[in-house]
Fold:
Amino acid sequence: MWTMALDKLLRHLIRTGEMTVQYPDGQTRRYGEADNGAKVSIALNDPSLPRKIALSPDMAVGEAYMDGRLTIKDDDLYGFLGLAISNIAAQGQPWFRRPLEAGRHLLRHLQQFNPVHRARANVAHHYDLSGELYDLFLDEDRQYSCAYFRDPDMSLEQAQAAKKHHIARKLRIEPGMRVLDIGCGWGGMGLTLARDYGAEVMGVTLSREQHAMANARADAAGLANKAQFRLMDYRDVTGQFDRIVSVGMFEHVGVPHYREYFDAVRTLLPESGIALIHTIGRARPPGSTSPWITKYIFPGGYCPSLSEASAAVERADLIATDIEIWRLHYAETLRHWHDRFMANIDQARALYDERFCRMWRYYLVASELTFRLNRQVVFQMQLTRAQDAVPLTRDYLYTSDDEAARHAAQ
Structure:
């Protein structure tokens, strides 16, 4: 029964390229067309896999790859996921799986309910992993978000620097301004704004590892009097700040808390203030997070559609003065991360184990290919309380290219 169900699912999905599947009972079936795309071969080495994949493909395939119960010829993970993701994007779900997908969508408010105690646990699941792990694949500044490849030949370090300075331009920072960094990571953005732009920065994070490292970095750089990082939730911040920046944190807020988040941004901004929210998003209608990603990588996380984020901005009585959409920048960033991780795979195994390494590689490759093949993007939303808080044109972002290049090279 379940072999037939999986067979029906794959015949619906795989139309471009060819996928050869060896089933647990030894039979081999081919799907798609060999002459119009990539060719991959996989083996299902567990009798329960046809049932699990038919019911929940994301979860079952991810777990089976981690455990070695699903193997790919030549371990061609890029080829397998590229073929799968491109066909899923083109064909969509078959009719018999749509009720299951609708159920996932209905449950997302429960899964993304992130009060402070739950948000703290979700953050710890991912960001309080060994700091040595992140050293294996991030740039020297530990920027764990999309880089900005102003030039396709940029190194990862240069593209991450370009990202920070592009954001700084949108914030229109002047020396002495108070800046709140919501979800400050390991402090790179805040330290850049303090060192290069003269800002007075307060960063907040729920990660103990990030909090400790960010303050240690500020001390080492002689910036402790200009950049301070606190272990606290953004909902507990009081006062007002000339500028607010949040890079790669909104994905962890959760749909039930969007109004709460943007209400907080509005309350913390003065009338002339500017906020810049940088988040992964989807260039398609609202959906739900992969259950595999929720369980293993980002519990409570969700990447919004622009319609969801914009509606919450409007309800908070904020003005979107600029919305920029980055398309393939994150795909390039993830490729750099993957290549660095694989170059240091032996060190990763020493930190964790083979299963963790397969999980992490699956996460990096699946994320990259989702950006390349399935309409995942990055939104940068510049928000204000007043229409005239920023210039009337976007010329100010691009008139000082020499300055931007100088900062990016630092």
User: Anything to note?
Assistant: Confidence is low (pLDDT under 50) at residues 404-410. The radius of gyration is 22 Å. DSSP finds 17 helices and eleven strands in the chain. The longest helix spans residues 354-373.
